[in-house]
Specification:
Blueprint lengths: L2 H22 L7 E2 L2 E2 L7 H5 L2 H17 L4 H20 L5 H10 L6 H7 L3 H4 L3 H7 L6 H4 L4 H14 L2 H11 L7 H4 L3 H5 L2 H4 L1 H6 L2 H11 L2 H10 L4 H5 L8 H16 L4 H21 L4 H15 L5 H30 L6 H9 L6 H16 L1 H10 L6 H20 L6 H4 L4 H12 L4 H21 L13 H4 L9 E7 L3 E11 L4 E10 L8 E7 L5 E7 L18 E8 L7 E12 L5 E3 L2 E2 L5 E2 L4 E8 L1
Antiparallel strand pairs: 1-2, 3-4, 3-11, 4-5, 5-8, 6-7, 6-9, 9-10, 9-13, 11-12
C-alpha cells in the first residue's frame, strides 16, 4: 500500500471510529467543552426509523448524480439543485414536521432574531440612524444575534412585510395558513398577516442553501475542471452544517461567500482590464452587502486578499506580485467603498463604526484561549465532515491543481489567523459555515483523482458522518413550543342535559350548546360551552359572563381566556372537533333561590386594552344589540 493510499485508509477508518464515538457519546469532548458543548440525544428507534426516507432519497440522488455526470450541465445542475432542496428538510423529519420547524426557527428570537426585529420596526427612517444605540442597549429583536449585527436582516424582513402588505388578499391567506404553528403564542399572533407572511424568507432556507451550488459550480470551473465542478456541486448536500443549521441566519451565507469568491476569481482570470475591473468591483460590492448582514463575513475579505496575493504570485518577483495585488485590491475596495458610502448616506453612520460595538458585546462571552485553539478548529471539522476536511488538507500538497492548492492555502492562512486571534467564541461550525464550500471544492478535486474503491470509501465515510451527526446532535435549540393538544386540555363532561343554542359570534364562532351544573356544597355553578370555530382566527377572544339572579339583579361577573389561557381561540380550527370550554362561577355565600340566567359575550382586546365585542346573531336570525346572549335557566334551590 502506497503512502497516499495508507493516508486515505487512515482517514476513512478515523472518520468511522469518530462517528461511532459520536453515536454513543463515547467521548463528550468531541461535542465541545470549556464553556460550550453541543447537545446530544441518544439514538432511539423512532429517530432511527425517521432516517429511512432521507436515506432512500439520498440513494436516489446519488444514483441520479452518477447517471447524469456526463449529461448536459443544466440537466445535471437541475437534478443536484432539486436533491439539495429536498433532502435536508427530509432529514429534519427526525426532529419535527419540516414546515413547522422551518417556520418556528425563523420566528424564534433565540435562533435568529431577524424576523422579530423586523416586526419591531415602524420606520426605517427612524430605526436605521438609531442602530448604533440600539446595539449598545441590546434591545433589538430580543436576540443577541441582532445586537451583534448591522441592520441587514431586520431591514429585509421589514421590507418583505411591506411588500406582502401590498397584496392583502394573498398575505391574508398565507399568514392565516401559518398561524396554527404558533397559535398559542400571543407575541407571534399579534403580528399582522403581512409580517407573518414575511417568515417565508426563512421557510425557504432549503432553497437558499441549495442555490450555493450555482456559484460553487461556476467557481469550480474557473479553478479546475467541469468534472470537479460537478462533483463539488453534488457534494454540497453531504455537508452536515447545511442540514443541521437549516433556517438559521447562517443558511444563505455560503451562497453569499461563494458568489463573492466567484466574482473575485473571474476578475483575476480576466485578460481585459475592463472585465477585470467589473468583476473585482462586483466582488467588493457583494462583500460589503454581506457585511451589512453580519460582521462574521470579515474573514471572507481576508480570504480574498490572501488568494489574490497567491494567485498573482506565479514565479514573478514579490514586488511585482504585490503591486498587481494592490491594483486588484483597489478595484475590489472601490466596490466595497461604494456600498459603505451608500450605507452612510442611508443611515447617517458608518457601517464599520458598528464593529467595536459588536465586538464589545461578542467578546463578553468567556472562552479559555488554549483549549479553544483546538475546539474552534474541531467545530469546523465536525460540521463539514472529517472526510471533506481531510481531503481539503490533502489538497495543500496537490501538484496538478495549482489554483486549488493556492485557494486551500489562502483558506488555511485565514482560518489560522482567525483561530489564533482568539476572536471566535464557539459555534464556529455554524459561524464559519461560509468557508465550507471552498473546503468541499478542494476535497472534490482530490477525490475525483482517486481510484473508484477509494472514492466509494471516502464517500461512504462522509455519508456515515452526516447521518451520525443528524441522528444524535441537536445544535439548534428552540425557545418556542408546539401548540397544546385540545384532547389533553378538554374538561371532564357534565352529566346534566345539553341545551342547544346555535348562536353565532361575529363570523368566527358558533355556540352550539351549553351545559350547566350547580353545586349546593360550594355555591358554584359550572358552565360548559360547546363552540364550533367557523374560520381560523387571528385574534384571541376572551369570554365574559354575568350571573343574573331571579330578581333580575346582576350578582357576579367572570372574564376568562378559553381553557385557562392554554388553548386560545387562535388555535381553534374549523372542521375539527368542537371545543368545549369550562368556567366555574361562584354565586356567593347565600345565592337567591330560583332560576338564574347567564349573560354571555365574547370580545378581543385592542392595542389600548379596550374590549372589542363580537356581534351576536341569535338562532332566529336577530342580532342582539348588547352583544350578549342569555343562557338558562339554571335552578338554584
Amino acid at each position: 500500500m502506497s503512502k497516499k493510499s495508507f493516508a486515505y485508509f487512515l482517514l476513512i477508518i478515523t472518520a468511522l471510529l469518530i462517528s461511532l464515538l459520536l453515536l454513543i457519546d463515547g467521548w463528550p469532548f468531541l461535542r465541545g467543552g470549556f464553556g460550550w458543548r453541543w447537545p446530544y440525544v441518544g439514538p432511539a428507534w423512532n429517530t432511527v426509523s425517521s432516517l429511512f426516507l432521507p436515506a432512500l432519497l439520498s440513494l436516489i440522488y446519488l444514483l441520479g448524480v452518477w447517471q447524469l455526470r456526463e449529461k448536459s450541465a443544466w440537466l445535471f445542475l437541475g437534478w443536484v439543485l432539486l436533491g439539495t432542496v429536498i433532502i435536508p428538510p427530509a432529514f429534519l423529519r427526525i426532529l419535527e414536521q419540516p414546515l413547522y420547524l422551518l417556520y418556528v426557527r425563523t420566528v424564534s428570537s433565540l435562533i435568529s432574531g431577524g424576523y422579530t426585529a423586523g416586526t419591531e420596526i415602524s420606520s426605517l427612517a427612524v430605526t436605521l440612524p438609531a442602530w448604533p444605540q440600539l446595539m449598545t442597549d441590546g434591545q433589538i429583536g430580543q436576540s443577541i444575534h441582532t445586537t451583534l449585527s448591522p441592520p441587514g436582516w431586520p431591514t429585509v424582513y421589514y421590507l418583505a412585510a411591506k411588500a406582502w402588505a401590498m397584496l392583502p388578499g394573498l398575505s391574508a391567506k398565507v399568514g392565516m395558513a401559518l398561524r396554527p404553528f404558533q397559535c398559542h403564542n400571543p407575541f407571534v399572533m399579534a403580528h399582522t398577516n403581512a409580517q407573518i407572511s414575511s417568515a417565508w424568507l426563512g421557510i425557504l432556507s432549503p432553497l437558499w442553501g441549495a442555490l450555493t451550488i450555482l456559484p460553487l459550480y461556476g467557481l469550480s470551473r474557473q479553478l479546475t475542471s467541469e468534472r470537479v465542478a460537478r462533483f463539488a456541486a453534488a457534494g454540497w448536500v453531504l455537508v452536515p452544517a447545511l442540514t443541521l443549521f437549516m433556517a438559521t441566519l447562517n443558511t444563505p451565507y455560503p451562497l453569499f461567500a461563494a458568489a463573492v469568491f466567484f466574482f473575485l476569481v473571474s476578475g483575476l482570470k480576466q485578460s481585459r482590464s475592463r472585465g477585470q475591473f467589473v468583476y473585482l468591483m462586483l466582488a467588493g460590492v457583494f462583500s460589503a452587502v454581506c457585511l451589512v448582514f453580519n460582521f462574521s463575513f470579515l474573514p471572507v475579505i481576508l480570504f480574498c486578499g490572501w488568494f489574490t496575493l497567491l494567485f498573482l504570485w506565479a514565479g514573478s518577483s514579490w514586488p511585482a506580485s504585490i503591486a498587481a495585488a494592490l491594483k486588484a485590491g483597489l478595484q475590489f475596495g472601490l466596490g466595497l467603498a461604494l456600498i459603505l458610502l451608500l450605507y452612510w448616506l442611508a443611515t447617517g453612520h458608518h457601517l464599520l463604526a458598528l464593529i467595536p460595538i459588536a465586538m464589545g458585546r461578542h467578546l463578553d462571552l468567556e472562552r479559555p484561549y488554549l483549549p479553544w485553539l483546538w475546539l474552534h478548529t474541531w467545530d469546523v471539522v465536525l460540521f463539514v465532515g472529517l472526510p471533506i476536511f481531510g481531503l481539503w488538507l490533502f489538497s495543500l500538497g496537490s501538484v496538478s491543481g495549482k489554483l486549488i492548492r493556492r485557494m486551500s492555502l489562502a483558506l488555511l492562512l485565514t482560518l489560522a489567523i482567525m483561530v489564533l486571534s482568539g476572536t471566535a467564541r464557539g459555534e464556529t461550525g455554524r459561524v464559519w459555515m461560509f468557508f465550507m464550500p471552498f473546503m468541499l471544492l478542494a476535497a472534490a478535486d482530490v477525490w475525483q483523482k482517486q481510484k473508484i474503491p477509494w472514492q466509494i470509501g471516502l464517500l461512504a465515510a462522509q455519508i456515515v458522518w452526516l447521518f451520525t451527526l443528524i441522528l444524535v446532535l441537536r445544535p439548534v435549540g428552540l425557545d418556542l413550543e408546539r401548540p397544546p393538544l385540545y384532547a389533553e386540555l378538554a374538561p371532564s363532561p357534565l352529566e346534566t342535559a345539553v341545551i342547544p343554542v346555535q348562536a353565532t359570534f361575529g363570523d368566527e364562532l358558533l355556540l352550539e350548546n351549553f351545559q350547566s351544573a350547580y353545586s349546593s356544597a360550594t355555591n358554584q355553578l359550572t358552565l360548559h360551552l360547546t363552540w364550533q370555530p367557523l374560520q381560523q382566527m387571528a385574534a384571541g377572544y376572551f369570554f365574559s359572563v354575568a350571573a343574573v339572579a331571579p330578581d333580575g339583579s346582576v350578582q357576579v361577573g367572570e372574564k376568562w381566556s378559553p381553557l385557562d389561557y392554554q388553548y386560545p381561540t387562535t388555535c381553534w380550527l374549523p372542521g375539527e372537533t368542537a371545543v368545549v370550554d369550562s368556567i366555574i362561577i361562584d354565586l356567593g355565600p347565600q345565592p337567591q333561590s330560583g332560576d338564574w340566567w347567564l349573560s354571555l359575550s365574547a370580545f378581543s382586546l385592542a392595542a389600548d386594552d379596550s374590549p372589542h365585542y363580537l356581534p351576536v346573531t341569535l338562532p332566529d336570525g336577530s342580532i342582539d344589540p348588547s352583544h350578549q346572549i342569555g343562557l338558562g335557566p339554571q335552578s338554584v334551590p
